[in-house]
Design brief:
The chain is about 30% helix and about 25% strand. By secondary structure, it is an alpha/beta fold.
Length: about 140
Amino acid sequence: MSSAKTVSGNGNAGDASLRRALVAAETAADLKGQDIVILDMREQTGFFDYFVIVSGSSRRQLHAMSENIDEVLTKREGAKRIGLEGAGDSRWILLDYGDVVVHLFDPELRAYYALEDLWADARRVEFTPSSSPQMP
């Protein structure tokens, strides 16, 4: 386990990129995404603000999460997706919104790439899925 610091997701309501990261995480949770981690990358890189890392149990689930996250972020949050990787038969789908990058993995590839370990100095954003389903 890393010694990453935790920052609350509720402390900065004006942070649009944090809101998008939390919305992406909540959308994944609504679709039974597992082991959801949000990393605050602002001190590590100037290219993006947050990573959202999620595991899914099947390719079908990964694709469903990808499609729903994209719909919620683009239609409801007004984000523009600037990149999509691995949407074919991949076990790792990457959605790039510029300030937020969403990584959807099957458990085996997630363990292999170990992004949380690679970016162990990044602060973890506290995230607990809500108990009520979100309405688009």
